[in-house]
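Q: Hi! First time doing this. I have a protein sequence and I read that you can turn it into a structure. Is that right? Here it is:
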Amino acid sequence: MKQFKSLVFATLLFVGAVSFSGAQSKIAHINTQELIEAMPEMKTAEAEIQKLGKTYEAEIQASLTELQNKAKQYQAEAEAQTQEENEKRAVEIDGMRQSIAQYQQQAQQDIEKKKFELLKPITDKAKAAIQKVARAQGFQYVIDSTEGGGVILADGKDLLADVKKELGF
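A: Yes, that's right. Below is the predicted 3D structure, encoded as structure tokens:
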């Protein structure tokens, strides 16, 4: 009887272990930020964004220089002008400041919009390549191991090299 219980217990333990190991999913991880930064398209996008930023920066700087020159001119001529003219000039200077501030905000929005437009196809391409490689290698789950991405342990297979190979770099 004691041997029978031991045999039943061992059988149940064996069946449970086999079922548990069969039920485990294949999991891999990849640092998507590192992948995207390594993609050639990303370098092109970054260059385009920087170029756009420098264009806006130059325009804003030119407007600020114009504002400063006009303010100095008006300040130097203030004593020779009437109170009404000085108030009119002060309103003009304030209007210019507001216009520059609005332009800066619009420029920032344009840069963010352009960044989104350029990065979306790159991230979509990376995601598609990750999915293709993961499916080809039989992984059921791929976790993003980018720092702060929520991965506590990343001892599984890292797909970064395989996805880079898939993308051709």
